Write the structure tokens for this entry.
Amino acid sequence: SAVISQKPSRDICQRGTSLTIQCQVDSQVTMMFWYRQQPGQSLTLIATANQGSEATYESGFVIDKFPISRPNLTFSTLTVSNMSPEDSSIYLCSVDSGNTGELFFGEGSRLTVL
Amino acid sequence: GENVEQHPSTLSVQEGDSAVIKCTYSDSASNYFPWYKQELGKRPQLIIDIRSNVGEKKDQRIAVTLNKTAKHFSLHITETQPEDSAVYFCAAIRITGGGNKLTFGTGTQLKVEL
């Protein structure tokens, strides 16, 4: 299994500002995934972060709004840019176990935008 | 892409009763079906999974069944306890190696009442 650390665990942000969430994994992984979980909702994949290449974004998510960095095989960041109250969510970093399919999640970052 | 539907959205049972949550999927190529439990304020964690080459899997009080023909799978919890209260998510994916992207169901809020 993988141990994933995220920070911040929670934050309260002002409208129009940006916040960067960090995700650290205790082992090297090829791909890292960023999910959004809006209040009372399911998990929606934002993008897949590949080391050494641009992130791959899912439909409805764009790089200008959610820029992602992946400088090495154990670390990634997700920035939520120009935030509005609709961006209030839990953002979760995850990695898979390779060819078994199991996903491991970080603790999540709960953002509240005022 | 894959589409996963999950029912019911909320489920209330008496302690000791059984609980059943059902999911359907759209992509007949999907071959891995995990179930995640998310307690309030915590990260989702895998509780059981099933692959397309088996029809049923059991782990103590929880079991999962898969009907590939009908493209549906179910989670069964027997002898429910208060600590089973949580949100449960089903998911489906076609595993093709690393970097597998899970599609999650909409979630079921299970409440086990004393």
Remarks:
- The mean pLDDT of chain A is 93.
- The longest strand of chain A covers residues 89-96.
